[in-house]
Amino acid sequence: MISFDIVLLWLDLIGVFFFAVSGSLLAARKQFDFVGSILLASIAALGGGVIRDIVINAGPPIAFTNPAYLAPPLLAALLVYYLFSSVQRFTSLLTLFDAGGLALFCITGTLKAISAGMNPVAAILLGVTTGVGGGLLRDITANEIPTLFNNRDIYALPAFVGAGLTTLLWHLGLFSGLTACVIAGVVFTFRVTAWRRGWYVPLAVRGWHRAGTGGGAISGARD
Amino acid sequence: MISFDIVLLWLDLIGVFFFAVSGSLLAARKQFDFVGSILLASIAALGGGVIRDIVINAGPPIAFTNPAYLAPPLLAALLVYYLFSSVQRFTSLLTLFDAGGLALFCITGTLKAISAGMNPVAAILLGVTTGVGGGLLRDITANEIPTLFNNRDIYALPAFVGAGLTTLLWHLGLFSGLTACVIAGVVFTFRVTAWRRGWYVPLAVRGWHRAGTGGGAISGARD
Amino acid sequence: MISFDIVLLWLDLIGVFFFAVSGSLLAARKQFDFVGSILLASIAALGGGVIRDIVINAGPPIAFTNPAYLAPPLLAALLVYYLFSSVQRFTSLLTLFDAGGLALFCITGTLKAISAGMNPVAAILLGVTTGVGGGLLRDITANEIPTLFNNRDIYALPAFVGAGLTTLLWHLGLFSGLTACVIAGVVFTFRVTAWRRGWYVPLAVRGWHRAGTGGGAISGARD
């Protein structure tokens, strides 16, 4: 029988791979070189988990101690190097891989915080931080306005939903490999649907509107 | 009788609120949405303390473990959402709230470092880091040149004064709620006066002058 | 007889000084003021080591606890303030000092990781992180595209070579003050030669070329 820790490790590594691809794709768009592609893949893929492990404060981050975490960024940089010229739909691909990483990381981050004995609110916060942290570091490092703050998209809310559901199901004793997949599916679908259909939340000040849009909140299709 | 820890917690929470408002105001100016406003408020408000707690290395940062620290960013984002359209003096407000946070954080950051057993120099450094860290992360995240490096303003010096006075009075046995308020007043007044009167320090190279100004150092009024 | 720890401390402090000068030079170019020059020197000089110590997670970072680490940034800011107007070759100087810091930090960072009991792969990663971290934080803080991702230069590879050689020689029992100097010389020479001769690695996507260049990889002189 497969242990829970092994499942968690694999979910985490798949999330690492998804974010690594998003980093290499951004490196390609920014015309970085191949070494820069590996580095930006590593920052995107491992940054959220490193912040999580530093906050939990229980020894060196797993990204440094377990060499398995280095394989996904290398693989991602190679895939983008060899395959990207034939798959040019850059923004869509980046968003889909980023959403996959977000869906897995808000779950694994929350679980690691719970395992470390943190309270439910802290576990949710840390799950969200793990989910959005790598993408935030990726965008800051590449000198872009972070996707997290792009007002045309809903990005942090799906992470909150995922971290909240994980914490809830855990404390109800209902968390399992199956429910983890359901949560990941919900988060991924929420994020991608919001992106495709142009859902958004109101601006930071009541009564202000987006430039070039006349619509209300949570409505309208992406132009 | 109110314990010293309670006073310290409240001073810290008020500082958190001040920086949170500065974050939400910047989110408003950058046209971020309401969720982005909460997130930038959280980064500005909690970033300095999280860095401080990670450096002290004595368990997870308090911003993650004590849910009370989440209230100020939510409150700040709501206040800016409902009230800002009627109070449009953006830059002044942001600078005043930022100065309030700076004044309180350089004190509470220094005290936490002293409590953790760090030496006086480390306590001053950590107080300054706590004071300027949140604003620095806020500006970097929002892709702005950090206020800390804006050469028209004196920003870090007041934090050094506050952290230095706190360390000095503590080691003389004169630190109390009253002297804490005096220090906060000195730091706030120094920062705001420097901003209003356009005080500045020389540029990084001797003999170089600011574009468009002919004046010497620490002189001249804001145009 | 001089102990190994003393040699390591001095190598580290000299690396700190080199990166501090690079920070003050960038502050000069960005027209920051003298306080900003001290702060950017500190971020460039101490940032990599602070990240390293936080990742190792064995107490507060040495940059906070040992006041000796504050001297190099102050000295660097003073030197740039008084001497820079007569030495105007900005980019060359910054690159040379940055390369010196890189050469020393990838060695000392690796050694500290080994001393902390981390595995060889983690030691190499942490050496590279220490070497490139300060410069990365310096460039992000100053709102520049990081040198690390500048596709005209080879920057991370020399750090990998230095960290790899340090780990290898250590485990072979051949690491000494002499071999440390040899490694530092190799890293510095590799980095500076790559910069002067315009060596580069391929872009992140196969078949894509740099704007304005027709050449292959690792060839051609800087125009």
From TrEMBL, chains A, B, C:
Keyword tRNA processing: no
Location(s) in or outside the cell: Cell membrane
Record-linked InterPro entries: Gly_transporter
Keyword Transmembrane helix found: yes
Residue span, Glycine transporter domain: 9-83, 96-170
Pfam families, sorted: Gly_transporter (PF03458)
TM spans (from-to): 7-28, 34-55, 67-84, 90-111, 157-190
Keywords: Cell membrane, Membrane, Transmembrane, Transmembrane helix
Coiled-coil region list: none
GO cellular component: plasma membrane
Membrane topology: Multi-pass membrane protein
Family as reported in the entry's similarity comment: Belongs to the UPF0126 family.
Record-linked PANTHER family: INNER MEMBRANE PROTEIN, UPF0126 INNER MEMBRANE PROTEIN YADS-RELATED
Protein name: Integral membrane protein, UPF0126 domain
Organism: Paenarthrobacter aurescens (strain TC1)
